Amino acid sequence: MKLHNLKPATGSVKKEKRIGRGTGSGHGGTSTRGHKGAQSRSGYSRKIGFEGGQMPLHRRIPKFGFNNNNKKKYRTINVGLLNSFVESTKIIELTHDVLIQNEICNKKDSIKILNKGELNHKISVFAHKFSQEAVHTIEKLGGKVHIINENKNKL
User: At what angle do helices 132-140 and 79-89 cross, to 10 degrees?
Assistant: First the structure.
């Protein structure tokens, strides 16, 4: 057996159904769409999850739990990341705007500083929340922690 001798197994490859090519093809007339109804018409598109009138899966399955739409989500930044950032940029005062400019967080993000990694520099950090250990680590080196009040911007 060589590469030029290889062929698919007999019966494994079927010819394409040529729809709408006259009654002699066996797929003329209604072109396999049946008589009348939405699916027989051009431009038909079924809604996502539609199951032919049967109760759709997303409505059959029981719902449970609670999703709090007002939950505050924080972008967590570790002290180790701040340390490497300070070493590369030599910026000692880390404000929300500085972190946005250097693509560490987005404009809409609320920031929480966590104590993972090591800190070797005296820095001043402005964030929405801090873990107690992160505050201890920053202040131990003589740095300052400033909590940003989110409600100042809201009327």
Answer: 40
The phi, psi pair for 4, rounded to 5°, reads -75, -10
Four-residue CA torsion sign, 79, 85, 87, 90: negative
Question: Among residues 145, 90, 73, which one has the least CA distance to residue 115?
Answer: 145
**Locus of tokens 């800190």:** 119
155 has a pLDDT exceeding 50: no
pTM for the model:
0.55
Q: Which residues contact 138 (CB under 8 A, 6 or more apart)?
A: 79, 113, 119, 123, 125, 130, 144, 145
